[in-house]
TrEMBL record:
InterPro entries in alphabetical order: LysR-type_TF_proteobact-type (IPR058163), LysR_HTH_N (IPR000847), LysR_subst-bd (IPR005119), WH-like_DNA-bd_sf (IPR036388), WH_DNA-bd_sf (IPR036390)
PROSITE patterns hit by this protein: HTH_LYSR
Name of the protein this chain belongs to: LysR family transcriptional regulator
Similarity annotation: Belongs to the LysR transcriptional regulatory family.
Highest rank taxon of the organism: Bacteria
Organism listed in the record: Celeribacter indicus
GO biological process: DNA-templated transcription
Molecular function GO terms recorded: DNA-binding transcription factor activity; sequence-specific DNA binding
Record domain HTH lysR-type: where: 4-61
């Protein structure tokens, strides 16, 4: 059996990245029919069907994840050979898809990824913001950065840092019975459930609610009520002040993880280690020990 050449891998990986034939065609600068033909040829040579065609596009079934990641390792290796020929070294390279909450994508990860890009110029990132759990089994992302007490069974990773919560309002004059509620995925967390139970016991008035800490931050800054926020958001706001806590809020671990089937892939393992180390250096800010006026390097 004649094996596929590197061009075959390029077409398959372009479809995996974009989730569609048309997206792969745009990325590679070819027409739709060429992508279909090259992917079909790849599948025929290996005797496998890599993608499930659905109304949502071309999806990767879980049992084919390792094959796709192996192809991505080939992509990185080809790039490494080229760099070795030019410069004699092969740094971490390629595209890493990172998913996290909107507040992390807005306030924590950009400087972290910027430093990593400086250290590894051949590495690039796609930052995917969502407060819901993405299905990494379908390669929606390579690495997830998630504050959670426990990882779901389909993920494997390590705790990079702890994240503290605080309680804030636009002024200490905001009445103690006016609060902002947490809804959606963030409202189902352990701390959010405890807070809601306590506030309902007190018969407080919920003036507004949101499924995003960034939205809650803005609502609190507008004076709509007291709120529980990650300390790195609340402490950084010049328009909020700390108020008495409604509950005792223990820090929450922040995991850097990948899907269990891909956790041992060298490229992803190295990327997780670097992201985790960079997050660990943010410990003072994540734990709310960094004053608003402090300057960080």
């Amino acid at each position: 059996m004649k094996g596929p050449n590197w061009d075959d891998f390029r077409f398959v990986l372009a479809v995996a990245r974009s989730g569609s034939v048309s997206g792969a065609a745009r990325e590679l600068g070819v027409n739709h029919a060429t992508v279909l033909r090259r992917v079909a040829a790849f599948e025929d040579r290996l005797g496998v069907e890599l993608f499930v065609k659905s109304v949502r596009g071309y999806e990767i079934p879980p049992e084919k994840l390792r094959l796709i990641e192996a192809a991505r390792e080939v992509e990185a290796a080809v790039g490494a050979v080229e760099r070795l020929a030019r410069a004699g070294e092969a740094p971490l390279s390629g595209v890493i898809r990172v998913t996290s909450t909107d507040s992390f994508c807005h306030a924590v990860l950009p400087p972290v990824l910027a430093r990593l890009s400086t250290q590894a110029p051949a590495l690039s990132f796609e930052l995917l913001s969502t407060n819901a759990h993405l299905d990494l089994a379908r390669l929606h992302a390579d690495v997830t950065v998630r504050p959670t007490l426990k990882l779901p069974e389909d993920l494997h990773g390590e705790v990079a840092v702890q994240m503290a919560f605080g309680f804030y309002a636009a002024s200490v004059e905001v009445p103690a019975d006016r609060w902002l509620g947490l809804t959606g995925p963030i409202g189902r967390s352990y701390l959010a459930t405890r807070l809601r139970d306590e506030l309902e016991r007190r018969r407080v008035t919920f003036t507004a609610a949101a499924d995003s800490f960034l939205s809650l931050l803005s609502l609190a800054e507008a004076g709509m009520g007291r709120v529980m926020l990650p300390a790195f958001l609340g402490n950084a706001s010049p328009r909020l002040v700390p108020v008495a806590p409604a509950i005792e809020a223990a820090p929450v671990p922040v995991y850097v993880a990948s899907h269990v089937d891909l956790a041992d892939a060298p490229r992803l393992r190295q990327a997780r280690a670097r992201i985790g180390a960079a997050l660990a250096r943010e410990e003072a800010r994540m734990m709310g020990r960094l004053p608003v006026t402090a300057k960080r390097a």
